[in-house]
Design a protein that fits this description.
Strand content: under 5%
Order of helices and strands: HHEHHHHHHHHHHHHHHHEHHHHHHHHH
Number of helices: 26
Largest sheet: 2 strands, antiparallel
Strand order of the largest sheet: 1-2
Helix content: over 70%
Radius of gyration: 30 Å
Length: 666
């Protein structure tokens, strides 16, 4: 009985230890793990009720998570009065400096108030994500950059299992890390499955122009997302410890995800993801098997080194040649974009054109470039309605100048050079390299899910760099309360904005649907209701002005579109504005708008058609005939019945002009 009583006391002590561990470690740490897990749900959020719900649904979800992160920090500050260990890293300083420069750029960007600058809003959210990931992942690693996540030491496991005070099965650090690993793998697995089901027509694509998009708007961000996580999954597949049940499960899950990604990526025809995926995988193999040192041993004389150098150059050259000619027109289109935007760098080398101004202004830059007589006939066929530079570094340079680009590169290069590589940091390091590689030829930072990955990877890697300063400080209640109030107010402000955004974007979508069905009056009412909140959104203003023009409200349409052209550039905007001025008998302004639309995308036939009709109605028969003949000679980039109808009308117009000319001669 006495032995049984002692055993019971021992069990009670162990139970008390377990509950203490739960209360002090697991439960407080479980919530940030769930928030990080929910970040990986972002790619799957799509709403058909919102305008452009494929992207806007993701943004609303993202900002709601940012608000929850701020609320979590507020609660932690109020109810946990322990001594805080504050770590300062150079990476934090460089990133904060880059954000500050972007904020200044947004503040001085014309026409858009700083708080309505879309790119600045995303950057602010990403700053919260970066610091949240860095702080919470560091906490989950026990405050040590030498902690391990992918392997567990059997000896320490056995020792801990015999220690009544430290039950390893309830270690909060391990649980949090495991939750994140599973979330990461499932995100890639479900995206790959979704893409495969679209490939075999089980699920519809989210873009009628492409067969495969995953839960994205087109194949490029879908492929980039999968390629960004591929190196980590590859590492988990090959090097995860197979002797423990959990890690065995992780390995099999990673194998399945890896296989599906390898199958679906080629079907996206996205060269940037091919290149990034290849480089990330090679890094994993070189690091894990120490291939670099083995190669150096193998190349033990100058002849071998020279031969290896020639072989590498040939491989790089042939790879570049194949990738270029795989989609040569797409490559030439990128070069055209960079050539046009380069002029803006020389005009604004320090301050740049302003944050988010590439999207809103590039159409006008392109129109001005072609209007000067630049470009060949091939360039005119390549020109499109571009909203991005398709090179993240170049776009940062154009918008924020050389200081902005330098601060961004300092942040990235510091992470790459100063990260201490181990079993946690190296696969993340490889994924970041992969993402940075296809940033040269694509737009991963403009796609929200891949931008989240960038911040997630950066936040983790910053933990494995040197600490600039460590401060242990018990923050007074007054300061903690002040910060908690700031975080809480900011969180509620973000949440309120998302509620407003849901309502206004629903009205936007419903208004467009009513317009397409011919119900113009209800459409105008819906747009008018959304206008106060969306009056700084150029695309919304363009749609609103188009609907007003269709209903015959030309003066109101002109007011809206004149505002829109300061923050948006699109041929539809200028053709609609030209129509409005034409109906108002302001023919010079109508001509200027049509000409801008013609030069914006020179291979488009419709703006030329409107210009030819304007000249004919004004009696400028020579100009009208020139435009009509140009249209008849133009080769349509996409053949359609509308193009055939326009050409038929232009032939009739030429015949009418010839008849008028003959009658005047007679």
């Amino acid at each position: 009985m006495q032995l049984k009583h002692k055993t019971q006391i021992k069990l009670d002590k162990r139970a008390l230890t377990i509950m203490t561990c739960l209360n002090k470690n697991i439960i407080p740490s479980f919530f940030p793990a769930i928030l990080i897990l929910l970040l990986f749900v972002t790619p799957f959020i799509v709403s058909k009720k919102l305008y452009y719900g494929v992207n806007e649904g993701k943004e609303i979800w993202f900002f709601c998570l940012v608000a929850l992160m701020l609320i979590y920090w507020s609660i932690r500050l109020l109810f946990r009065s322990e001594t805080y260990k504050i770590h300062f890293y150079f990476a934090d300083i460089f990133l904060s400096a880059f954000f500050s420069w972007c904020f200044i750029s947004a503040y001085f960007t014309p026409y858009i108030p700083v708080w309505h600058n879309h790119k600045l809003q995303i950057l602010m959210g990403m700053m919260v994500v970066y610091f949240f990931v860095r702080l919470e992942i560091r906490t989950s690693l026990g405050g040590s950059e030498n902690s391990q996540i992918l392997t567990v030491d059997n000896k320490s496991l056995q020792e801990n299992s015999n220690n009544d005070k430290r039950p390893v099965a309830l270690n909060s650090h391990t649980i949090i890390q495991n939750i994140i690993i599973i979330a990461f793998l499932l995100s890639g697995l479900f995206q790959a499955i979704y893409g495969l089901l679209q490939l075999y027509s089980v699920f519809p694509s989210l873009n009628s122009d492409f067969k495969i998009t995953g839960s994205f708007a087109n194949p490029a961000p879908f492929a980039m997302y999968l390629a960004s996580i591929f190196p980590i999954i590859f590492y988990l597949t090959i090097f995860t410890n197979r002797n423990k049940y959990f890690f065995s499960f992780v390995r099999y899950l990673a194998c399945a995800t890896l296989l599906l990604i390898v199958i679906i990526i080629p079907a996206t025809f996205n060269r940037a993801s091919y290149l990034g995926l290849l480089c990330g995988s090679l890094l994993i193999l070189f690091y894990q098997y120490d291939l670099w040192n083995k190669i150096k041993i193998l190349l033990n004389n100058n002849l071998k080194r020279f031969s290896a150098l020639v072989l590498v150059i040939l491989l790089l050259g042939s790879t570049s040649y194949c990738l270029y000619h795989f989609k040569s027109k797409s490559s030439d289109g990128r070069i055209l974009i960079w050539e046009i935007a380069y002029e803006k760098i020389s005009e604004n080398p320090i301050a740049g054109v302003g944050l988010n101004r590439f999207e809103t202004n590039f159409g006008k830059w392109q129109a001005e470039w072609f209007a000067k007589g630049n470009g060949t006939s091939e360039d005119k066929m390549l020109a499109g309605n571009t909203k991005m530079a398709l090179n993240e570094y170049f776009e940062i340079l154009v918008e924020t100048g050389f200081p902005g680009l330098m601060l961004f590169l300092l942040f990235v290069i510091y992470l790459l050079l100063k990260t201490k590589l181990n079993s946690i940091s190296f696969p993340v390091f490889s994924s970041l390299i992969c993402l940075l590689i296809f940033s040269f030829v694509s737009y991963p930072l403009l796609s929200l899910p891949t931008f989240i990955l960038f911040c997630f990877f950066s936040g983790i890697l910053s933990i494995f760099t040197s600490v600039v300063k460590l401060i242990s400080y018990k923050i007074p209640l007054l300061i903690r309360t002040s910060f908690a109030m700031i975080f809480t107010i900011t969180a509620f402000f973000i949440g309120y904005n998302q509620v407003v955004k849901i309502r206004t974007y629903k009205n936007w979508q419903a208004g467009l649907q009513a317009y397409y069905k011919g119900a113009n009056s209800p459409s105008v009412i819906l747009f008018k209701d959304a206008y106060p909140e969306l009056k700084h959104n150029g695309e919304f203003l363009m749609n609103y002005g188009k609907i007003l023009s269709t209903t015959g409200k030309y003066s109101e349409s002109i007011d809206i579109l004149e505002t829109a052209k300061n923050i948006w550039s699109d041929p539809v905007l200028y053709t609609t504005l030209g129509d409005d001025y034409k109906w108002q008998k302001q023919f010079d302004k109508a001509e200027a708008c049509y000409l801008l639309a013609v030069n914006m995308i020179p291979h488009k036939i419709y703006p030329k058609y409107l210009l030819a009709k304007l000249y004919y109605e004004q009696g400028q028969l020579i100009k009208a005939e020139e435009q009509a003949n140009d249209i008849l000679k133009m080769e349509a980039k996409v053949k359609s019945t509308a193009v055939d109808e326009i050409k038929s009308q232009m032939q009739k117009l030429i015949n009418q002009i010839n008849e008028k000319t003959r009658s005047e001669v007679l």
